[in-house]
Design a protein that fits this description.
By secondary structure, this protein is an alpha/beta fold. Helices cover 48% and strands 12% of the residues. It has two domains: 277 residues, Rossmann fold (3-Layer(aba) Sandwich), CATH 3.40.50; 201 residues, N-(1-d-carboxylethyl)-l-norvaline Dehydrogenase, domain 2. A hairpin with a 4-residue loop joins β7 and β8. α7 packs antiparallel against α8, α10 packs across α15 and α18 packs across α20. The termini are far apart. Bound molecules: D-mannonic acid (CS2).
């Protein structure tokens, strides 16, 4: 038996299921980036909101690259399970908020037509950092990005999320349909303003009037999103199947904690997310900075150092006292650079992060978090370093994380084995390593010269010296011993 709307009544009583009739759900949101994170985060908030206040807010979930999620969910009437996991076991919930699944490259015009429907009032995004096709150091649209070049040349069959949004907005404008609200839910600083800038830049590149209209008429609220959602494994599938008494081809597994902070600027309305725990604020910036620098900054640092030290998951990594000490010290160093959101106690926030990282039931792979570091470092670690330098404060903990990233992206681990580096700049970084070899001074200088990542920070000796020093220690002693010797 397979999870399906017709089989909902056969689920064991302890499995939560939609309290509304999924057949009656109409769609109002197009979500680009139908990954595990969206399904365990915004879709769950939307599910809660539908339970509280039913309305036409079903989600059209769109994969921008491969058909796997659609292939798994379509035979299930788009239903899937969220398994919430901590040491005490799993609680299972079948979610119905994703009403339809689509694969953008299979038929771009169909997705564009959907985005142009007046019923669609929000287009949300979890396309990961690299999906924005921007220059991570400056936040500007990369007009040389192949997908952006393609979408400018052939706007009716876009490839990039930005290309889809611009073309859909242009068509709505022409047809006199009010623009949807664009809601970025990625871990990028000022994600609303960043997305607004990218969409406007592409619109301007096509037509100055369209650009001006985007700037004047389209709302791009910023958000801070948080929930740890590791990639689903076959073991997860088996556990969920046992709990459901039927198969779910692609459940998602998440920690109990979740948080969503949103700016309330929705020109065509929104689900009752505020009634179900999302926090609406005038300015997301302090929340986002707190989360990016404390959670994601230590996540990335732990991921590179943990992987190099031979640890598979974050929980295993922080079970090592020297690694836990590093994460605490990194957060303590970064905290003074973070504006404290109203009502927050940053020390308490950091302690809670350590507990979340330690959740032994989550198999969150260091390799997964290590992905796309070239796109992540600027907002996770480099901004912190800049602010610390401006205060004259030491940057050694930040520098160690950056050096571990460098050591990692060479693609060779501490035992000389290959690392499968997944990063849009992987080839370029491997090419630089091929020129310098494992010489910390030359390698460090070459990587610090990658201006898309480091901007002008790479040329600042107050940063470059501790990074190269840390890289030398990582090469000489390895990650574990380097951490053990940190004061
Ligand atoms: C992680 C994030 O993969 C990563 O880079 O740092 O996905 C992290 O788990 C989430 O941002 C938590 O909200």
């Amino acid at each position: 038996m397979r999870l399906h709307p017709d089989n909902l009544s056969r689920l064991p009583p302890r499995v939560t299921r939609p309290g509304y009739d999924p057949a009656k759900l109409l769609t109002g949101i197009v979500h680009l980036g139908l990954g595990a994170f969206h399904r365990a985060h915004q879709a769950v908030y939307t599910e809660d909101a539908l339970e509280r206040e039913f309305g036409p807010w079903g989600i059209v979930g769109v994969s921008l690259r491969n058909p796997d999620t659609r292939d798994a969910l379509q035979p299930q009437g788009s239903l899937y399970t969220v398994a919430t996991r901590d040491g005490g076991g799993d609680s299972l919930r079948v979610v119905g908020a994703v009403k339809v699944c689509m694969v953008a490259p299979e038929d771009p015009p169909v997705l564009l037509a959907t985005m142009c429907s007046p019923d669609i009032r929000i287009v949300s995004l979890t396309i990961t950092e690299k999906g924005y096709c921007h220059d991570p150091a400056t936040g500007r649209l990369n007009l040389k990005h192949p997908d952006i070049l393609h979408d400018l040349a052939d706007p009716g069959r876009p490839k990039s999320a930005i290309g889809f949004i611009v073309e859909a907005l242009a068509r709505r404008r022409k047809a006199g349909v009010a623009p949807f609200t664009v809601l970025s839910c990625d871990n990028l600083p000022h994600n609303g303003a960043l997305t607004a800038g990218l969409v406007a830049a592409m619109a301007h590149a096509r037509d100055a009037e369209l650009g001006a209209w985007v700037e004047a008429e389209v709302a791009f609220p910023s958000t801070m999103v948080d929930r740890i959602v590791p990639a689903t494994t076959d073991d997860d599938r088996a556990l969920v199947e046992a709990g459901l008494g039927m198969a779910d081809a692609w459940p998602v597994v998440a920690e109990p904690f979740k948080q969503w902070v949103i700016e309330d600027r929705f020109t065509l309305g929104r689900p009752a997310w505020d009634a179900v725990g999302a926090e609406f604020v005038a300015d997301v910036a302090p929340y986002e900075m707190m989360k990016l620098r404390l959670l994601n900054g230590s996540h990335s640092s732990l991921a590179y150092l943990g992987y190099l030290g031979g640890f598979e998951t974050i929980a295993e990594t922080v079970a090592q006292p020297d690694y836990a000490r590093h994460a605490r010290a990194l957060m303590a160093a970064a905290a003074p650079t973070v504006p404290v959101p109203p009502g927050y106690d940053l020390a308490g926030y950091q302690a809670q992060l350590m507990q979340r990282f330690a959740n032994p039931a989550l198999k969150h792979r260091t390799w997964q978090i290590a992905m796309d570091g070239s796109q992540k470092l600027p907002q996770r670690l480099l901004g912190t370093a800049r602010d610390l330098l401006a205060k004259g404060a030491p940057v050694d903990r930040i520098a160690l994380g950056v050096a571990a990233w460098m050591r990692y992206v060479t693609g060779v681990d501490e035992r000389g084995q290959p690392i499968s580096v997944s990063d849009p700049m992987a080839e370029r970084l491997a090419g630089l390593f091929a020129q310098t070899g494992p010489d910390p001074a030359r390698l460090g200088a070459a990587y610090l010269g990658v201006s898309e990542v480091f901007g002008d920070l790479g040329a600042d000796p107050r940063f470059a010296v501790p990074v190269i020093d840390a890289l030398a220690r990582l090469y000489a002693k390895g990650a574990r011993a380097t951490l053990a010797e940190m004061p």
